[in-house]
């Protein structure tokens, strides 16, 4: 186990009800989570890998996953979480739930950039408009949710592909200091533990307070190819983005969002 992940072996009491499984190299932590669910693994498991050979984001995009520098984890939430007034019981809100936890974790471990850290709908965490983390939520046939999270921690500018250097960042590139991945993972898993009981209304309020999308001009590129430009006004109780554009109010379930300055 890499040295900066070794502290995780001693934190199980701090992160209950979650348990941990730690791996070296995997193809994808989300893929591994699906296999574990099929084999009957208990719920509330956090899978952590040192690297991924086939990490991915939304719409099948590649997630760069070199060893020793970043966080790659997938969290399994059980199908039994179905209380409608509790956010964790509504799978469509899991991306919002996870983004609040990840945003708060980064603000906590790097307070010097906390004010510039925010959530871009639906699943990205930005620092000063550069992407530092992404979230991919997938549902399984048995109704469980797999929350995949990738966070750039100690990557240098040279570690990023040339086409991503202007748009991506890591905690190291924005602060100039190195971080212990295990300590950040502990903080994040404690955040998930503490947010499991949050109500839908409270989650929407907390997410909006951290959003860098709401009340900005956005360009939304829909899966069907339609593109609109307008002002993001908020999110509804299904986690959909509300945009005023072209003289209409649009309720967007899925889109690539670009902030227009």
Helix percentage range: 10-25%
The succession of helices and strands, N to C, reads HEHEEHEEEEHHHEEEEE
Looking at this structure, what is the CATH superfamily of the largest domain?
Answer: Bira Bifunctional Protein, Domain 2
* Number of helical regions: 6
Q: Which runs of at least 5 residues are low in confidence (pLDDT < 50)? A: none
Query: Helix/strand-derived class?
Result: alpha+beta
Q: How would you characterize the largest beta sheet?
A: 7 strands, mixed
Ends apart, CA distance between termini = 44 Å
- CATH class call of the largest domain: Alpha Beta
CATH topology of the largest domain: BirA Bifunctional Protein, domain 2
The total beta strand count reads 12
Architecture of the largest domain, CATH level 2?
Answer: 2-Layer Sandwich
Shape, please? globular
Oligomer: single chain
How much is the radius of gyration in Å? Answer: 18 Å
User: What number of structural domains do the residues give?
Assistant: 2
Strand-residue fraction? 25-35%
Task: Walk me through this protein's architecture.
The structure is a single chain. The protein has helices at 12-15, 29-38, 94-109, 171-175, 181-195, 200-210, and strands at 19-26, 45-52, 71-77, 117-120, 124-127, 130-139, 145-151, 217-221, 227-235, 241-245, 248-252, 256-260. The model has no long low-confidence stretch (mean pLDDT 91). The strands form two sheets. It has a seven-stranded mixed beta sheet, sandwiched between helices. The protein has a five-stranded antiparallel beta sheet with strand order 11-10-9-8-12, with no helix packed on it. Helix 3 crosses helix 5. The protein is an alpha+beta fold. The protein has six helices and twelve strands. A hairpin with a 5-residue loop joins strand 6 (130-139) and strand 7 (145-151). The protein has two domains: 3-210, BirA Bifunctional Protein, domain 2; 217-260, Roll (SH3 type barrels).
């Amino acid at each position: 186990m890499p040295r900066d992940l070794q502290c995780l072996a001693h934190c199980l009491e701090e992160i209950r009800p979650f348990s941990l499984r730690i791996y070296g190299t995997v193809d994808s932590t989300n893929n591994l989570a699906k296999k574990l669910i099929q084999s009957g693994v208990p719920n509330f498991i956090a899978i952590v890998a040192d690297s991924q050979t086939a990490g991915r984001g939304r719409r099948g995009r590649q997630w760069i996953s070199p060893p020793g520098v970043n966080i790659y984890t997938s969290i399994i939430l059980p199908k039994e979480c179905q209380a409608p007034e509790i956010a964790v019981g509504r799978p469509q809100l899991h991306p919002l739930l996870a983004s609040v936890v990840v945003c708060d974790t980064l603000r906590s471990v790097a307070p010097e950039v906390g004010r510039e850290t925010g959530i871009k709908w639906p699943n990205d965490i930005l620092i000063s408009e550069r992407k530092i983390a992404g979230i991919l939520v997938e549902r399984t046939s048995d109704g469980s949710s797999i929350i995949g999270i990738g966070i750039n921690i100690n990557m240098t500018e040279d570690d990023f592909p040339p086409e991503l250097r202007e748009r991506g960042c890591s905690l190291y590139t924005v602060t100039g200091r190195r971080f212990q991945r295990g300590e950040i993972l502990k903080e994040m898993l404690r955040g998930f533990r503490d947010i499991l009981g949050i109500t839908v209304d409270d989650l929407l309020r907390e997410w909006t307070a951290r959003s860098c999308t709401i009340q900005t001009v956005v360009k939304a590129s829909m899966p069907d190819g339609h593109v609109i430009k307008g002002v993001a006004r908020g999110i509804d109780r299904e986690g959909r983005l509300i945009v005023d554009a072209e003289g209409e109010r649009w309720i967007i379930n899925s889109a690539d969002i670009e902030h227009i300055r």
